[in-house]
Specification:
This protein is of the alpha/beta class. It has one domain: Response regulator (Rossmann fold, 3-Layer(aba) Sandwich). About 45% of the residues lie in helices and about 15% in strands. The chain contains seven helices and five strands, in the order H-H-E-H-E-H-E-H-E-H-E-H. It has a five-stranded parallel beta sheet, sandwiched between helices. Strand 1, helix 3 and strand 2 form a beta-alpha-beta unit. The protein is globular.
Length: about 160
């Protein structure tokens, strides 16, 4: 499913999409090691979706923190510890695209994975054009989410190497 999504987006803008080889990262029981202070942040106004995503991230071996809104995340002390952001697209006040835009505007290079119950091609294209790692449809599939998180963490590692 993710590979088909990547192919569809590649037709719109080939440079914005991970290659099929990148998406096909082998699965492990534990996530790549993060420092004790690094976390994966999850932002969703729906408590059950937020909780389910956090449980899934934790089951894959990573630390997760949850936030009920983009504003709560931006004001949290965990912002600087976030190595990957998983956010809903449609939320009141500050939606996922606006959250991504604010982070980009603050020069915070946090890889973003979008999740949505209402997938729209135009929104998906905007998210990917702004640098999203993946755009997923709810309910989240564990294997696909794991692949996306690995891509995000690889992207983060590459950014760190480039900044040295």
């Amino acid at each position: 499913m993710l590979i088909n999504l990547c192919r569809a987006i590649a037709k719109i803008s080939p440079k914005l999409v991970p290659t099929e080889r990148q998406v096909g990262i082998a699965s492990k029981k534990e996530g790549p090691p993060l420092s004790d202070t690094e976390i994966i942040s999850i932002v969703d106004d729906d408590a059950s979706a937020r909780s389910a995503a956090a449980r899934l991230v934790q089951a894959l071996g990573w630390q997760a923190r949850t936030f009920s809104s983009g504003e709560e995340f931006l004001q949290s002390s965990h912002l600087s510890q976030t190595c990957c952001l998983i956010t809903d697209v449609q939320m009141p006040r500050l939606n996922g695209l606006d959250l991504q835009s604010r982070l980009n505007g603050q020069s915070r290079r946090i890889p973003v994975i979008f999740m949505t119950a209402f997938s729209e091609t135009s929104v998906q294209a905007k998210a990917m054009a702004a640098g999203a790692v993946c755009y997923l449809t709810k309910p989240l599939d564990a294997t696909t989410l794991e692949q996306c998180i690995r891509l995000a963490l690889d992207q983060r590692s590459q950014q760190r190497l480039e900044n040295k």
